[in-house]
Amino acid sequence: xxxxxxxxxxxxxxxxxxxxxxxxxxxxxxDNLSTGHKKLINRKASFFNINFGDKKNLKKIILKKKINCxxxxxxxxxxxxxxxxxxxxxxxxxxxxxxxxxxxxNTKIKYFIFSSTASIYGDISKNSVSENDKxxxxxxxxxxxxxxxxxxxxxxxxxNLKYAILRFFNVIGADSFERTGPILNQGxxxxxxxxxxxxxxxxxxxxxxxxxxxxxxGIRDYIDVEDISQIHIDALRLIKIKKKSYIFNCGNSxxxxxxxxxxxxxxxxxxxxxxxxxxxxxxxxxxxxxNNKKLxxxxxxxxxxxxxxxxxxxxxxxxxxI
Length: 322
What we know:
It is built from 10 helices and 13 strands. By secondary structure, the chain is an alpha/beta fold.
C-alpha cells in the first residue's frame, strides 16, 4: 500500500509515521504545521507542507505518490477552544474533510482510516461506553467529529472505499526511542502537568471537583500513543484483508480520575503537587470510559504500556525539548 498521513507532523501522526517506518512501510505526510512541528517529521517519509483541504495540491500528491490509503489525523482537537471558536472547527473538521473525500473519490482511494473521538458520546451514565451506544456530544469538537463519521459512511456507500473509524479516548505517553512526543499543549490534563514539570512548577489546576464521581473529579480512559499508533496499522491491514469497514473504540477499559492521575505523577516524580480548583469548563463531561471488547476481539489488541510507563516516557520526552 501507498499511504498518506494527514497531520503527520503532529503528536499522534508522527508516531504512526515512525511505526510505519519501523515496519518498513513507505508513506507520505501532509501537514500545514499550524499545530504540527518540523522536529516531529519522520525524515524517512516524503513531506508536503499543505492543508488537507487543498484539493488541487492534494490531488497532485496522491497521483504523484500513487496513494491508495489515507490515514486522516489532521483536525482541530481542543474541546475548550471548540466552544470559543466553533467556526474554526466546522471549517477544519467538516468542510475540509468534505474536500478531502472529494479528492478520494476522484483519485480512487481504496482505504481510509479516520481518527475520531470519544467526545462524540457526551456524558456517560454507565460504567463504560461501547460503539453502538447513543451519541450526544456536549462540545463542538465532538459534534464536528460525529458529522465527520457520517460523511465517511455516506461516501463509502457511493464508492468502493473501505474505512476504519477509530474513536480515541485520551492519548498519552511518547515514543520509546524518544523520536517523537507531545509538544503543543491542547489544554489536556497530561499536557498541563507535563508543562509544569518541565518548568519545575509542581502544581496543577483541576477544572471541577463536584462531579458525580467517587472523588468528585472527572474520570477518563487513557491509551498510550504507541499502542494507538499500532492500532492504526492493524486496522489498515484488517480492512485490506477483509474488504469490510469497521468502527472501534480505542481505550483500555479503565477509568482514572483527575486526582488519581495526579497521584501517579507524584509517584513518578516523587514530588507533591499543589492543587488549585477552578470551575468546570464548558463542554467537559464527568466520565468517559471505553468498552474495548470489540477492539480486543476483532483486532486482538492487547495493552502494552502501563499508565506509569506512559507517564515516564512523556516526562523523558518533555525533558529533552529545548
